[in-house]
Design goal:
The chain has 467 residues and is mainly alpha-helical. The protein folds into 3 domains: 2-114 and 181-265, Rhomboid-like (Rhomboid-like fold, Up-down Bundle), CATH 1.20.1540; 117-179, no CATH class; 318-455, Serine Threonine Protein Phosphatase 5, Tetratricopeptide repeat, CATH 1.25.40. Helix content is 57%, strand content 6%. Helix 11 packs across helix 12 (245-265).
Length: 467
């Protein structure tokens, strides 16, 4: 068995809800006798073919049949709970989890209503329970073959044929077992799996498992791992149709996929252009939209995360000359052509290093407005967060009339560094009139997540200056 232990998906919320659900499942496992005594599970499991059982829609997802059953489910609950709760926070995650549990239980109940005692008897080829008891006593070979295919052992059937006085009780038990029932959290976990697939397919899960005597540990994308799990269960369902393990998993998967899709398209969750639909279209990543920044119309740029659209303009020093004479930008000295050339060709790391050395001697040295944009965004693309912060702040200070995009990107960067108060300060008093919708969404996301961190008592981390 291979199970997920961790993920590199951005976790904007601590997984209080996932931890709580794991604790509740363990508590219920203790209450029901550790799955050792099946009688202790009476009233918890969801029986098939016995009408609607609303209470068991919920309780069956918190009941488990043994240690390996609950252990495997809890590992998967942890892995996919991290992804989903990481985007929603526990206040939205817990009600959603319970809703998915009820939807899954109701779906299973409705899909198994036909599995009545009469249906089971018909499958076994007998007319009544009395007829079944008689054939059990007589060790009917055709009946025994059908029962063995359903998982009953030859020794168990031989025991029945040798005990005619208890044949009626055995017949009732066989009918009840053949009707079926379900328990365990795997159905709702597959709902979370489906939601993770829609919202974060390119993020990775850290997987551990056994292959013979060897312990394997590796990282795999959510898309690949979920694709493998879904394909495996589709194959299992094709080989054995019905509401067995594979059927239960797929029944839980469908509402997860549907609800995740609706929440994404309604804007109730921010996938930052890394959702499955963006990935399949080839235009994924925060910067996939060529018009992601105010004033940018760079439709010629590529569609991958690496093709970060940079602000358009001449890139010449005439941009500085166009600035009003009294502005801060006018008083800054021009940078050497060699630095401008590095920025223009996209080598922003080298440009930033050279500028750092030059500014030790000339503190008022700074590129033009357009090149400052290019430099800041290029450093973001290169994930040089400390240097990107410097030049975003430079742009915010120097160009107050055109700095809304920079304030929002700087706020995102500060939030990434677990500095929610600093991020909120960047957004304070931000004029949203005419703001590009994607920038507006980004600002709202920062605002919501920063406030959430502060409500949890998170203090701003000290900047790491590499000292």
């Amino acid at each position: 068995m291979f199970v997920p232990l961790n993920t590199d998906a951005p976790l904007y919320h601590f997984p209080w809800g996932t931890i709580g659900l794991i604790a509740v499942n363990v508590l219920c496992f203790v209450i029901t006798g550790f799955g050792i005594d099946p009688a202790a599970l009476d009233g918890w499991t969801l029986p098939y073919g016995q009408g609607l059982n609303p209470l068991q829609w919920l309780t069956s997802a918190f009941a488990h049949a043994g240690f390996m059953h609950i252990l495997g489910n809890l590992f998967f609950l942890w892995g996919f709970g991290l992804v989903v709760e990481g985007k929603l926070g526990w206040r939205r995650f817990l009600p959603l989890y319970l809703l998915l549990t009820v939807i899954w239980g109701a779906s299973v109940d409705l899909l198994t209503l036909h599995r009545t005692p009469e249906f089971v008897l018909s499958e076994l080829g007998v007319a009544s329970a009395a007829d079944l008891a008689e054939k059990l006593v007589n060790a009917d070979p055709e009946l025994f073959e059908k029962l063995i295919q359903r998982g009953f052992t030859e020794s168990f059937l031989s025991e029945i044929s040798g005990n005619p006085a208890a044949a009626d009780l055995y017949a009732s038990a066989i009918i009840s077992i053949s009707q079926g029932q379900c328990l365990g959290a795997s159905g709702v976990i597959f709902s979370l799996l489906g939601m993770s697939l829609i919202w974060a397919p390119k993020n990775e899960l850290h997987i551990v498992g056994l292959l013979g005597p060897r312990v394997l540990s590796f990282d795999v994308s959510i898309l690949a791992f979920c694709g493998w799990k879904i394909a495996w269960d589709v194959l299992g369902w094709l080989l054995s149709p019905g509401m067995e393990t594979s059927g239960l998993h797929l029944t839980g998967l469908l509402p997860g996929l549907l609800i995740a899709t609706v929440m994404h398209w309604r804007g109730w969750v921010d996938c930052e252009n890394w959702d499955l639909f963006a990935v399949l279209s080839g235009r994924y990543g925060r910067f996939a939209d060529s018009n992601w920044q105010v004033g940018t119309h760079a439709t010629q740029f590529g569609s991958s995360y690496g093709d970060l659209p940079l602000p358009q303009g001449t890139g010449t020093d005439s941009d500085v000359d166009a600035v009003p004479a009294g502005s801060v930008a006018r008083r800054k000295k021009k940078v050497p052509d060699s630095v401008n050339a590095l920025i223009d060709k996209g080598d922003c790391l080298s440009a930033a290093d050279e500028l750092f050395s030059l500014r030790l001697q000339q503190t008022d040295l700074c590129p033009s407005e357009e090149r400052t944009k290019r430099l800041a965004l290029g450093l973001i693309q290169a994930e040089a967060w400390d240097q990107a912060e410097i030049w975003l702040q430079e742009f915010v200070d120097r160009f107050p009339e055109e700095n809304r995009w920079a304030r929002i990107r700087l706020a995102e960067l500060l939030l990434r560094q677990t500095r929610p108060k600093a991020a909120l300060r960047q957004l304070k008093g931000l004029n949203t009139e005419g703001l590009h919708p994607q920038l507006l969404t980004a600002a709202r996301t920062v605002l919501r997540e920063a406030k959430g961190l502060m409500e949890q008592g998170v203090e701003d981390a000290q900047p790491d200056w590499g000292i």
